[in-house]
Design goal:
With 369 residues, this protein is an alpha+beta fold. It has one domain. 20% of the residues lie in helices and 19% in strands. It has eight helices and nine strands. The chain has helices at 72-90, 109-115, 152-164, 204-210, 233-237, 241-248, 285-288, 325-334, and strands spanning 58-66, 102-107, 143-149, 170-179, 222-231, 300-301, 304-309, 312-321, 344-354. Strands 5, 6, 7, 8 and 9 form a five-stranded antiparallel sheet that branches. Strands 2-3-1-4 form a four-stranded antiparallel sheet. The chain is globular and about 70 Å long. Belongs to the DyP-type peroxidase family.
């Protein structure tokens, strides 16, 4: 294994001073319950890439705060100049190309208050959930970058180029690299628990309803929930496979639900054993996260795993949706009740508004600044 990447960078260095080794950094991947989306058509005009596009195998997540002097009207002008300088990088390559690089930018709640701008109505800090062990320096942030590509060196190079266009505007808060494990064509990758991740993501048609914001002031925008989750891989791996399957609610060998059928068969919440008990336990992860409890609403999970050290491996949970209250409802059901809970530790959390895409005539952020 190549050397791991640190989880967060020193504030007194340059934005990427701690990232020099990223070209050879290790990373791993997956996503809780439902991970990497199936290949979708290229991003629609006006939308940022890196959401419904095919998911490249490598990712670099970087979270920043605005520098102390970047605030109010003068701060808005500095941020506008930075975004204008970023726009050529954000629009340089074709979207929707498998493994092609993409840069996705989000804004945290404090971004707007610092600049004296009005935040989108649903952009509020996520509440605390039972069992969270959050560390402030491991989550949050005012400006967020999700950089995806075929190789970590490409991600790092793009990050450095964005840094050079942001002198004096941003301070690093945390960063983390991740990757998707290799999988045969057409098969869903597995996470660090050994289960397939990416089975129940919304289709392209469902994404139009549940991921993207419709006509209005924020048309073609979305929201991104980020959770950094450490996984107890050794402890979970020590369980008998049958017990692992009852915890997650899926078969380990092929990813199908416990009632039977191939991977993409819908989990039957009401299927019973001959003795009258439910096949899917009441505390199974798949049951508690099922869209049935939210009127069919779905979030698009686009997660990666990370591997910093033998005792620091886990999940970079990334989920896109047009109503972040969906995540709050799901996580409240999971917190304290999910059989997977003893094997996961949520230590970083953030919510970002992902504005519409940029183009030369309309730089990034022009609809909200």
């Amino acid at each position: 294994m190549t050397p791991p990447v640190a989880g967060h960078g020193p504030a007194r260095r340059g934005l990427l001073g701690g990232l020099a080794a990223l070209g050879t950094a290790a990373a791993v991947a997956g996503c809780q319950g439902s991970g990497a989306p199936a290949p979708e058509p290229p991003s629609s005009p006006g939308r940022q890439p890196g959401v419904t596009d095919p998911q490249p195998p490598r990712a670099l997540l970087l979270s920043y705060d605005l520098s102390p002097g970047t605030r109010g009207a003068t701060g808005r002008d500095a941020v506008r100049r930075m975004f204008a300088a970023w726009t050529p990088l954000l629009t340089a390559g074709p979207t929707g190309v498998r493994d092609g690089p993409s840069i996705t930018v989000g804004f945290g709640p404090a971004f707007f208050s610092r600049l004296g701008s009005r935040a989108p109505e649903a952009l509020r800090d996520l509440p605390a959930f039972a069992g969270d062990r959050l560390r402030p320096e491991a989550g949050g942030g005012q400006v967020f970058l999700q950089i995806c590509a075929a190789a970590p060196a490409v991600c790092a190079d793009l990050a450095r180029r964005l840094e050079r266009a942001a002198p004096g505007v941003l301070r690093p808060r945390w960063h983390q690299a991740g990757f998707l494990p290799a999988a045969p064509p057409g098969e869903t990758p597995r996470n660090l628990f050994g289960f397939k991740d990416g089975t129940a993501n919304p289709s392209a048609k469902e994404a139009e309803r549940w991921v993207w914001l419709g006509p209005g002031p924020h048309h073609n925008a979305t929201y991104l929930v980020v959770r950094r989750i450490r996984l107890a891989t050794a402890e979970f791996g020590a369980l008998p496979v049958e017990r692992q399957e009852r915890v997650t609610g899926r078969r380990k060998a092929h990813g199908g639900p416990l009632q039977g059928g191939p991977e993409h068969t819908e989990a039957d919440l009401f299927a019973k054993t001959p003795q009258g008990g439910y096949l899917l336990p009441a505390d199974a992860h798949v049951r508690l996260a099922h869209p049935r409890f939210d009127g069919g609403a779905r979030m698009l999970r686009r997660g990666y795993s990370y591997d910093n050290a033998p005792d620091d491996q886990g999940l970079l949970f990334l989920a896109y949706m047009n109503d972040p209250n969906l995540f709050t409802r799901v996580q409240r059901r999971l917190a304290g009740h999910d059989a997977l809970g003893p094997f996961v530790e949520h230590f970083g959390s953030a919510l970002f508004f992902v504005p519409p895409g940029a183009d030369p005539a309309q730089p990034l952020g022009s609809t909200v600044l």
